TrEMBL record:
Its main location: membrane. PANTHER family: SOLUTE CARRIER FAMILY 25. Belongs to the mitochondrial carrier (TC 2.A.29) family. It comes from Nothobranchius korthausae. Solcar repeats lie at residues 1-49, 57-144. It is a multi-pass membrane protein. It holds the Pfam family Mito_carr. InterPro entries: MCP, MCP_dom_sf, MCP_transmembrane. This is Solute carrier family 25, member 43.
Length: 167
């Protein structure tokens, strides 16, 4: 709202209580695991398919794989994003939906499969640059270490991932 953060905070609390601040959080948490699993699995599969006979891949192909993996992960988990959005915007004192599964099934039953993907193209517009940016950083941070990626410690991989996610 135009009234600012604190005024919005007060309005949400007055209208919906403490629960109003956590609407859609479960859907968001549930979406995180499959999104990451699909993203990383798809990325590795695409990279493996594009490797040369020496097991190398060009930076551009790796970046392309990252963008495509982001789209695949978003596609698989988008119905959970729709559920999250609908749970957030509903009035929790008079809810239309009772939870994530109820939201997805009710939207599918009443509005069809297309409703679970309405707005997906806009998500792709955001996912592709973010995913590409993460992999550009991740690939280049790998080069800063004085050893091949196959010899990285878990801490080095964690640091690389933190830099990439910070994009």
């Amino acid at each position: 709202t135009k009234s600012g953060f604190w005024q919005s905070f007060i309005i949400i609390y007055q209208k919906e209580g403490l629960r109003g601040f956590w609407k859609g959080n479960l859907a968001s948490c549930l979406r995180l695991f499959p999104y990451t699993a699909v993203h990383l699995t798809t990325y590795k599969k695409i990279v493996h398919l594009h490797m040369d006979e020496f097991g190398s891949i060009s930076q551009w192909r790796a970046i392309f794989a990252g963008g495509l993996a982001g789209v695949a992960a978003a596609f698989v988990t988008y119905p959970l994003e729709v559920a999250e959005t609908r749970l957030i915007i509903q009035n929790c004192r008079q809810p239309t939906y009772t939870g994530v599964a109820h939201t997805v099934s009710k939207v599918y039953r009443n509005e069809g499969l297309r409703a679970l993907y309405r707005g997906f193209s806009l998500t792709v517009v955001g996912v592709v640059p973010f995913s590409v940016g993460c992999y550009v950083v991740y690939i280049n941070v790998d080069k800063l270490w004085q050893e091949p990626p196959s010899r990285f410690t878990p801490l080095q991989n964690f640091i690389n991932g933190c830099f990439a996610a910070g994009v």
